[in-house]
Amino acid sequence: MKLGIFSVSLPDYEPLEAAALLKQLGYDGVEWRCTTDTGDKTKPSFWSGNRTTMTAEEIIRRAPELKATGLAMPSLGAYIAIDTCTFAEAELHMRATAAIGAKNVRISAGSYGRQPGKYWDLFKQARANYAQLAELATKHNVRVVIETHMGQLGPSVMKARAILEGLDPRHVGIMWDPANQVYEGSETYKMALDIAGEYLAEVHAKNTRCLPGEIVNGCRQWKKQAAPLREGIVDWPQVIQELKASGYDGWIFFEDFSTDQPLLERLKDNLAWFRELTA
């Protein structure tokens, strides 16, 4: 398996700086955060002022210098959703993906609960939309992936697979994020991989812990919080074992939002541990 970083977790570094650092530390590649970030870059954070963030237009323009770093760039973490973006916007992000020699581009299946409509109606529309995206992806020789993400139409692997079923897995796929499934869409690891099958495109690695909150109306509330990879609910040694058993040899991208350790320590420790696990 190949180990990379989703650049959202490197907010302090400009893209070329990030690429140089990852190569120095021994990472295999990077998945770029692709969106418009108008935050204050003098105060970078994961979600605002993140210095690694580039728009699709910027990635296309900077493709030669990004590729010249020699770091593999197999995926683009785009922040667009099929229920709100146009097909022209989706194709622009496919062009950016192809420009840097990447294969995968994330396009969300859309939110559930924040838009009107019953689930099955939204599901049918999403299937129709992904069928069109698959055609566009064929044109650019890329693959559109759905991330298993809470609050969306595909929070579980089963739901994501159902949206994509029947489409060509060379051009659509699933980004499996076990830590997101701590929030919603939980499946046993073996079941998730069995369901994903040939649609499994990449894996995101982070972790989540649950903390007790206040009692409201007689019921204990629980808060979910980013945790170091070794300390959350996701059993990463078991995940890796199941990935090996399934024959997966693709990319794992770290998306560690914990701040218990300084950034450089997190980068070194996560890589060293997963090198052991995936050996």
Characterization of this structure:
The chain has helices at residues 15-25, 56-67, 87-99, 119-140, 157-164, 180-183, 189-196, 236-246, 263-278, and strands at residues 2-6, 29-34, 72-78, 104-106, 143-147, 172-176, 200-205, 207-216, 219-227, 251-254. By secondary structure, the protein is α/β, with parallel strands linked by helices. The protein has a single domain, classed as Divalent-metal-dependent TIM barrel enzymes (TIM Barrel, Alpha-Beta Barrel). The strands form 2 sheets. It has an 8-stranded parallel β-barrel, surrounded by 7 helices. The chain has a two-stranded antiparallel sheet with strand order 8-9. Helix 2 packs parallel to helix 3. It is globular. The mean pLDDT is 97.
Distance between the termini: 8 Å
Number of helices: 9
**Which fold name fills CATH's third level, the topology?**
TIM Barrel
Give the structural class: alpha/beta
User: What about the largest sheet?
Assistant: 8 strands, parallel, barrel
Mean pLDDT: 97
Class in CATH?
Alpha Beta
Fraction in helix: 25-40%
Shape: globular
**How many domains in all?**
1
- Identify the CATH architecture: Alpha-Beta Barrel
Low-pLDDT stretches are: none
- The H-and-E topology, N to C, reads as EHEHEHEHEHEHHEEEHEH
Q: Name the beta content range.
A: 15-25%
CATH-wise, what's the superfamily? Divalent-metal-dependent TIM barrel enzymes
Report strand order across the widest sheet. Answer: 1-2-3-4-5-6-7-10
Query: How many beta-strand runs?
Result: 10
